[in-house]
Specification:
The complex is a heterodimer of chains A (114) and B (117). Chain A has no helices and eleven strands. With 114 residues, chain A is an all-beta fold. In chain A, the strands form two sheets. In chain A, strands 2, 4, 5, 6, 9, 10 and 11 form a seven-stranded mixed beta sheet that branches. A four-stranded antiparallel beta sheet of chain A has the order 1-3-8-7, with no helix packed on it. In chain A, a hairpin with a 2-residue loop joins strand 5 and strand 6. Chain B is an all-beta fold and 117 residues long. In chain B, strands 2, 5, 6, 10, 11 and 12 form a six-stranded mixed beta sheet that branches. Chain B has a four-stranded antiparallel beta sheet with strand order 3-9-8-7, with no helix packed on it. In chain B, strands 1-4 form a two-stranded antiparallel ribbon. In chain B, a hairpin with a 6-residue loop joins strand 5 and strand 6. Chain B is globular and about 50 Å long. The chains are: A mainly beta (114), B mainly beta (117).
């Protein structure tokens, strides 16, 4: 079955450490996205990529980095520069045909800074 | 200005009753799409229903329907015959189809729905 796989589901990090969240999709989607969700709030866009080897900053990119070396993969690194990284992170993908695309989400990764 | 506004932080509905979750949006693009997602306590975002800006009829998917009022820029979700499993957060979202910036997605802050037995 096609879908998006995020790993790990739960992650604990000490302050000052970088961590990388994995996102893999087998939907053959061109576009991929990373969102952050804080308790009781909506989704905020961190980064998105519409094509391999290209990505753009979203609304809250500071303290995060991404790469898009393969169509299927869009890993997110939460760096030590991110002051408040404890949150739920959602990866999504979509086709890029206008008027037709829908975001498909992974199950999410919950990051806790100790 | 907020792109998507959901004014109901929490809603309660009796089992088997219908409930309407409100959503208003703001865009100047002629082409856009409106979505509703369900987020149960497990955290996954489940796509429920989609309405395109050029669609003449309201979208329906089983017990879900989207009440699309273009002039009022509203896209309310109607859930008929509520079930206990409908208890979750519900997010309204919009996709703007911008020629220059590509597809941009915007989310509301969500409505927490609780179905009462």
């Amino acid at each position: 079955d096609g879908g998006i796989t995020q790993s790990p589901k739960y992650l604990f990090r000490k302050e000052g450490q970088n961590v990388t969240l994995s996102c893999e999709q087998n939907l053959n989607h061109d576009a991929m996205y990373w969102y952050r969700q804080d308790p009781g709030q909506g989704l905020r866009l961190i980064y998105y990529s519409q094509i391999v080897n290209d990505f753009q900053k979203g609304d809250i990119a500071e303290g995060y980095s991404v790469s898009r070396e393969k169509k299927e993969s869009f890993p997110l690194t939460v760096t030590s520069a991110q002051k408040n990284p404890t949150a739920f992170y959602l990866c999504a993908s979509s086709i890029t045909v206008p008027e037709a695309n829908v975001l498909t989400f992974g199950a999410g990764s919950r990051l806790t800074v100790l | 200005a907020q792109k998507i506004t959901q004014t109901q932080p929490g809603m309660f509905v009796q089992e088997k009753e219908a409930v309407t979750l409100d959503c208003t949006y703001d865009t100047s693009d002629p082409s856009y799409g409106l979505f509703w997602y369900k987020q149960p306590s497990s955290g996954e975002m489940i796509f429920l229903i989609y309405q395109g800006s050029y669609d003449q009829q309201n979208a329906t998917e089983g017990r879900y329907s989207l009440n699309f009022q273009k002039a009022r820029k509203s896209a309310n979700l109607v859930i008929s015959a509520s079930q206990l499993g409908d208890s979750a957060m519900y997010f309204c979202a919009m996709r703007e189809d911008n020629t220059y910036t590509g597809n941009q997605f915007y989310f509301g802050t969500g409505t927490s729905l609780t179905v009462i037995p």
